[in-house]
Every structure is written in C-alpha cells, then in structure tokens.
Amino acid sequence: MTAPNSAQLPLPRLRPMRAADLDVLLAHEQAMFGSEAWSRESYLDELADTELRYYLVAENADGVLLGSGGLMTIGETAQILTVGVLPAARRHGLGRVLVRALITEARRRGASEVLLEVREDNLAARKLYEAEGFANLGRRRGYYDRGRVDAVTMRYAI
Ligand SMILES: CC(C)(COP(=O)(O)OP(=O)(O)OC[C@H]1O[C@@H](n2cnc3c(N)ncnc32)[C@H](O)[C@@H]1OP(=O)(O)O)[C@@H](O)C(=O)NCCC(=O)NCCS
C-alpha cells in the first residue's frame, strides 16, 4: 500500500545548503515568507556560521530545489530558524521530511529540545509542527509585522 501523497513525489534528496542555492531560494523568498523574508546577506551570514547553524535543502532527482530548512543549536537547545517548501511541491510530505531532518541534526549535536516561533496566523506551519510532535509553549505578543501578529512558541523534547 502507498502512503498518502507519496506517489506524486519521489523521495527528495537532502544536502547542506550552499551559497549557489541562494539565487533559486531568493527568487521565492518573498512569496514564501512575506515580511519575514531574508536577504542574501542574511543567508550568507547564516551559512558562514557552521559551528552553530545547520542549513539544508531538499531537491528532486534532477537537482531541482524544492525546499529548505535551518537550525541553530546552542548547548542543549536547538531552534528551528526556517522551514520552507516551494509552493508547487507542497502537501507531499516534504515539510515533514525537513522538520525531521532538523530534529535529527539537533539530536546529533547534543540538544535535548528544539524550539521554534511561528506566526499565529500560519496555520499550515502550526499544523505541520503539531503533527511532528511540537507542543505549544507560549506566545510572544506582537512579534511579527511591527506588533500586529503574535508568535506562538513551540517545543519538541528530544
Ligand atoms: C508550512 C510548509 C513548510 C509545509 O510544507 P509542506 O511540504 O506542504 O508540508 P507537508 O506536506 O509535509 O505537510 C505535513 C502536514 O502539515 C499539515 N499541513 C501542511 N500544509 C497545510 C495546510 N496548507 N493546511 C493545513 N495543514 C497543513 C498537515 O497536517 C500535513 O499533513 P497531511 O498532508 O497528511 O494532511 C509550507 O506550507 C511552506 O513552505 N509555507 C511557507 C513558509 C512557511 O510558512 N514556513 C514555516 C514558518 S518558518
């Protein structure tokens, strides 16, 4: 029997993000993240910090980039910094694959918990994180959009 949705998308390949991926990623950045979109400079700064940060991309068998994720680990606490799947590749389980890969990396780095912040109005992402075992921890009032949108903080215990 085939798992739901898996038939349409062959298993993605995961690999570390490189600066050469940024042209493709940045072309979708605004549409994917809106007011939370990052600049090339921000990404380059993040990629340079390999000690604390871990960024990966998912691509299909033809090397077409489908999504990305990023993690920061300090001591026993890791934080998911970003997860994004290109619109055409959504709802095929790739978000799950990326979140699981980030948790695996957090565990490998010795973290005992993974935290994240997500916009309260981002129901797709909140559902994804809940489905992957994250629990609501609290709320940061007015964290996004110059005070207009709250962040929900979530925690996964490793
Ligand atoms: C959130 C996001 C990463 C999900 O990626 P995805 O590949 O579509 O997610 P998946 O296919 O792995 O979905 C896993 C589960 O999450 C939930 N989910 C995902 N998208 C959803 C949506 N639009 N509505 C409701 N639930 C959703 C579902 O429970 C889903 O399981 P199901 O398909 O079996 O019902 C994607 O929508 C995205 O890139 N959004 C823009 C960027 C963003 O908001 N990132 C997160 C904040 S950093």
Give a short summary of the structure.
This protein is an alpha+beta fold.
Features:
Aminopeptidase, binds coenzyme A, Bact_Acetyltransf, 158 residues, transferase, ribonucleoprotein, Ribosomal protein S18-alanine N-acetyltransferase, protein-N-terminal-alanine acetyltransferase activity, seven-stranded mixed beta sheet, alpha+beta
Description:
Keywords: Acyltransferase, Ribonucleoprotein, Ribosomal protein, Transferase. This is Ribosomal protein S18-alanine N-acetyltransferase. One of its GO terms (molecular function) is protein-N-terminal-alanine acetyltransferase activity. This protein has a domain of about 110 residues: Aminopeptidase, CATH 3.40.630.30. Helix content is about 30%, strand content about 35%. It has four helices and seven strands, in the order E-H-H-E-E-E-H-E-H-E-E. Strand 6 and strand 7 form a beta hairpin. The chain starts with 12 loop residues before the first strand and ends with a strand. The site of coenzyme A (COA) has 22 residues, from helix 1, strand 4, helix 3 and helix 4.
